[in-house]
Amino acid sequence: MKPKTSFIWNYFDEVCATTAKCKLCEKIYSRKGGTTSSLKSHLKSVHATEYEELIKLESSKKCSQRPTTSTTPLQEVKKQITVQEAFIKNQKWCSSNPKSKEIDKYISEMIALQDLPFNFVEGIGFKRLLQFMVPNYQLRGRQFFTDNICGELYERLAKNIKDLLKQFQKMSFTTDIWSEPSSNVSLLSLTAHGINENFKRIKIILKCHTFNERHTGDQIQEKINEMLMEWGITNDQIHCFVRDSGSNMIRAMRLADIPDINCTVHQLQLCVRTKKSNQIE
């Protein structure tokens, strides 16, 4: 007689070729065709605990019968290297990584050169592009680039500008006060104009200072002096200041003892507005 290999016979005794007796409930069941399907069905529906044991035994047998592949030492080393490479490839760089710091620098310069808002770095499109091109790069938030640009980048750029200002024996300046409607603040600007030794005209916006105080001549003079001192500009380097014809601006120049002239464009604008106003009336 052929030996029984199925674990189902742990729970049944063979009566004949077409029937078997359950060891648990001693009922006799038909097994037409000599299969064990009906016996499993009985175990599943009547003896659930034993059926679970049967399934576990069959699963263990299948696992033990799976062919094992032997690998050479060289193949094992190659496999380990591949795993290490995959881990390194997906690992994020730390903030001190030279490549990461270089990317930070270029992003900071891009924001400054193109006058982009700081929240640009938090946009979904920018993040997707960067993760596709440099998956190891750890994305930064707007606060990181605000600190980086207003701190390290500004200091480096300010030093270069101060060196550039030293090339001019004399400089002219334009200044103005205007309100920024989006942020509801007033700004006082200072722009330097000069010609270098190669007779090339250079214009540098030195400052846009938030002006929260009253727009009096005394306050304007104080702020302008602060901006000139910040850039190391002395009175003997000033050729003249171009300003509007507001009485507060005129007084500020007098208090600061700075040579100044009216802005011709501003004068023309006042004339045009006056003419339009008279026509409407």
From TrEMBL:
<dbReference type="InterPro" id="IPR003656">
    <property type="entry name" value="Znf_BED"/>
</dbReference>
<keyword id="KW-0862">Zinc</keyword>
<keyword id="KW-0863">Zinc-finger</keyword>
<dbReference type="InterPro" id="IPR036236">
    <property type="entry name" value="Znf_C2H2_sf"/>
</dbReference>
<dbReference type="Pfam" id="PF02892">
    <property type="entry name" value="zf-BED"/>
</dbReference>
<dbReference type="GO" id="GO:0008270">
    <property type="term" value="F:zinc ion binding"/>
</dbReference>
<dbReference type="InterPro" id="IPR052035">
    <property type="entry name" value="ZnF_BED_domain_contain"/>
</dbReference>
<dbReference type="GO" id="GO:0009791">
    <property type="term" value="P:post-embryonic development"/>
</dbReference>
<dbReference type="GO" id="GO:0003677">
    <property type="term" value="F:DNA binding"/>
</dbReference>
<keyword id="KW-0479">Metal-binding</keyword>
<dbReference type="GO" id="GO:0005634">
    <property type="term" value="C:nucleus"/>
</dbReference>
<keyword id="KW-0804">Transcription</keyword>
<keyword id="KW-0539">Nucleus</keyword>
<keyword id="KW-0805">Transcription regulation</keyword>
<protein>
    <submittedName>
        <fullName>Zinc finger BED domain-containing protein 4-like</fullName>
    </submittedName>
</protein>
<dbReference type="InterPro" id="IPR012337">
    <property type="entry name" value="RNaseH-like_sf"/>
</dbReference>
<feature type="domain" description="BED-type">
    <location>
        <begin position="3"/>
        <end position="54"/>
    </location>
</feature>
